[in-house]
Amino acid sequence: MPTNDGYYEAYWPRTPRQTGIKPLAPRLKSLEGRTVAYLWDYIFRGDEIFGYLEKGLKARYPGVRFVSYTEFGNIHAGKEKEVLAALPQRLKELQVDAVICGMAC
After folding, report:
1. CB within 8 A of 71, min separation 6: which ones?
2. Which of 12, 37, 94, 100 is deepest in the core (most CB within 10 A)?
3. What is the chain's Cα-based Rg?
């Protein structure tokens, strides 16, 4: 009767990475004169929190402009694949410079 002496073969359940690591986009030096879009999963109080963020950012950067999460739709629901697939084009159309994604993105 063969014994393994407590040693068992194990396999990693994930496949090898399919894409390489990509560099991050450079940070904006300022939000002054920029357009910031909100993305939301409609789960936790984003409608309230985005209001506070907007007030604080407008005080610091008076020329900042915001695009509501309602322009994009729910990024975590039945149509999330369609919403996310359309996102790059929609961001270009709205001339968005930066995105704030909340709450559980």
Report:
1. 37, 90, 94
2. 37
3. 21
The C-alpha atoms of residue 18 and residue 58 are separated, in whole angstroms, by 41
Put simply, whether the predicted model's pTM sits higher than 0.70 gets the answer yes
Structure tokens of 36? Answer: 């910031």
17-72 confidence digits (pLDDT tens): 778 888 988 899 999 999 999 998 888 888 888 999 999 999 999 999 999 998 98
Cα–Cα nearest to 69, from 99, 89, 44: 99
Confirm if 36 and 96 have CB atoms less than 8 A apart: yes
